Structures are given as C-alpha cells and as structure tokens.
Amino acid sequence: xxxxxxxxxxxxxxxxxxxxxxxxxxxxxxxxxxxxxxxxxxxxxxxxxxxxxxxxxxxxxxxxxxxxxxxxxxxxxxxxxxxxxxxxxxxxxxxxxxxxxxxxxxxxxxxxxxxxxxxxxxxxxxxxxxxxxxxxxxxxxxxxxxxxxxxxxxxxxxxxxxxxxxxxxxxxxxxxxxxxxxxxxxxxxxxxxxxxxxxxxxxxxxxxxxxxxxxxxxxxxxxxxxxxxxxxxxxxxxxxxxxxxxxxxxxxxxxxxxxxxxxxxxxxxxxxxxxxxxxxxxxxxxxxxxxxxxxxxxxxxxxxxxxxxxxxxxxxxxxxxxxxxxxxxxxxxxxxxxxxxxxxxxxxxxxxxxxxxxxxxxxxxxxxxxxxxxxxxxxxxxxxxxxxxxxx
Length: 392
Ligand SMILES: Cc1cc2nc3c(=O)[nH]c(=O)nc-3n(C[C@H](O)[C@H](O)[C@H](O)COP(=O)(O)OP(=O)(O)OC[C@H]3O[C@@H](n4cnc5c(N)ncnc54)[C@H](O)[C@@H]3O)c2cc1C
Fold this sequence. Notes:
The chain contains 11 helices and 22 strands.
C-alpha cells in the first residue's frame, strides 16, 4: 500500500511526489495517462537530428522567484537563455520582422526613419527609458502620433493573433486583456524581463526524471488513473484497486474527469505541425509570430535554444494552430488553455466545492485548479500546497 497517490506526472505532480518522498519519507504512486513523464513540459532528443524538441510547444523557463529557481536547481543544471520573439508582418507590400514586445527597435522596423525617431523621442520624454506603457494608456494621450502608434500595435500585432488564439471575435476579447498589451521604451529586445531566464541543461524531461528518482516513488505510465483509483465525490471517498484508500490523493488531471455527468470545462487546444528541414537554420529567432496569418499563430525553431544540438545539419520547426478543444478528436483532445469566462468559472467553482468535500483529496496544477500557470507558477503553487498540507 502507498501513503500517497498522485494523478499526473507533470511538473505539479512531480513537485508533490518529490516533497512527499524526500521530505516526509512517504511511499508514493504516480499514475500518468501518457507514455512519458513531465506533462506538457515534455521534451525529447529527435533521433534523426539530435535536436531537443518540445513536444507540446516551446517551453522557456523564466522567473523572478528565487526560491523556485533554487528548488529546481537541485534537479538540474541550467544554461542561460534570453528568449527573443519577432512578429512577421507584411507592411506596404514588404515583409518585416518586428521584435516583441513592441519596443524602439520595433518602431524602427515599422516606420520610416524620421517618423520612427520622432515617436521614440516622444515616448522617451513622456515615459522615460525602460518604462512599459500599455496601449490603453497610450490611447488616452493627447498626442495624435502616440494614439496612432497604439492603434497600429493593436491592429497589426495584437488583435488578429489574439482572436486566433482564443477563437473569438475582436468584440469578444476582454478589454482588460487589450489594456495590458505593452510598448516597451527600450532598445533591448527580449521577450521576458525576469532575473532568471534559462533552460535545463539536459531538458525538462531529465529534470522531472530527477525529481521522481527516489526509490520511494513508483511511476506507472500509460495508465488513466480511473483504471486503479475511484474518486467518488458523492460518497466523499476514494478506493485504490477496489479497496478503501485513506492515504492522500494529489490530483493534477482535468477536474471535470471527477464527475463525468457534470458539464465539461471549456478549453482551447492546439494542433502542432512538426517539420524536419535540410537547412542549417530556418528563421532568425527561436519564435516568429504570424499575426496576419489566417490560422497559424507562430513557428518555433528548436536549435536556437542553447541546450539543443545547434550544429546539426538539419533543423526542426513546429507550427502552431489554435483549435477548439474536443475530447473525442485525437488532434484536439489536449486541454492546453483554460477558457476564462463566467460560464467556466461557475462550473469550476461547483466542481471544486464538491472535490473539497473529499477529506483526503488535494487539487494541484493547471488542470485541476483550472488556471494558467507558467512553469515557475506551477512549482511555486505545488510547494505552497505541500507546506499547507503539512501544517494541517
Ligand atoms: C503551448 C504551451 C506553451 C507553454 N510555454 C511555457 C513557457 O514557455 N514557459 C513557462 O513557464 N510555461 C509554459 N507553459 C506552461 C506549462 O506547460 C505549465 O506550467 C506546466 O505544464 C504545468 O504543469 P502541470 O503539472 O500543472 O500540468 P500538466 O503538465 O498538464 O500535467 C498534468 C498531467 O496529468 C496527466 N493526466 C491528465 N489526465 C489524466 C488521467 N486521466 N489519468 C492520469 N493522468 C492524467 C497529463 O497527461 C499530464 O501529464 C506552456 C503551456 C502551453 C500549453
């Protein structure tokens, strides 16, 4: 018998398994539906090229949380990496690559010299070097040129990309999201601004493997938790292999799997198209966004990430196409992003309230807590929940 059963071998489940085994000496069973650990952070070395590929879209670690960084550093060495993203835009018939978030270099790429320098001078004088100004704030300026700049960024970079990403019309996009789109008053190109920006030297799968390495942890892959675990929300009880289980269950899979007759939670999914090309490099930066493309959002080329094999003669790219989530469609059945609206919040709260009635059940992670977590948030959240559990 195990002390703890964990559903899901993603980052959240792995943090919990590691803490229960290594700090509390508990025996842990991890049940994972997929044939691999590491959840959506899973990466693998492509046999044909030797390039480290991220199976579920590009994952770049960045954080301002020193304790999360120190915690993960027990399981991996790091390679520094500043992620850069450019948008591919066609402006007056010409293709240009525009650094994101939109900054002084982006202004220079999009506008004739004199006009660009005028806009940069105005932004510097008004906000100061390094400031991040939302396009909403710019729109409220008296200056016509600054208002036009905000509209340009909204139209060319933001709105089509975001409507594709979420499958919504521009009118349906929450104005709070639009309000946050920044223009950065700086020459420096860099997608994130956190003090820790790096990738695990041997990849995320190796890092998660080290987290799960304790002999007290058994990981059973290719196993839907329902094959062994019966979590009965009505009876407020749990069985493992048909026997009452009074140990702790840490649950990081989709919350709505716990009650299938309940309304399902909505998600947005992604279709990935991987290509191996006989080229030294395909594009200038790791990720190129395509705001003007009708269905594709971005292309990522993995060999730009420094823990990948950079001197390979070939290259691997992945194109991303957001799609509606459909649990019965093999391509669209991965629930990548929770959809935040009133309807989903109502369903989530009902399911969460029921799950909380089961005394030995803890919900953790992006699927069970129905939140978007970056990797550092997922780790911080799991560590906090573990400490909370210990203090009860
Ligand atoms: C496209 C994309 C790009 C991202 N890029 C970044 C990035 O650049 N930087 C960053 O910090 N974060 C990024 N993230 C976020 C990152 O993926 C998450 O923070 C992280 O995966 C959260 O881990 P988790 O364990 O909570 O969830 P998951 O990784 O989803 O783990 C949940 C696990 O539960 C398993 N499971 C589900 N159902 C069952 C079942 N019935 N039985 C058993 N097991 C089950 C799943 O297979 C999965 O392994 C990105 C996310 C996406 C979708």
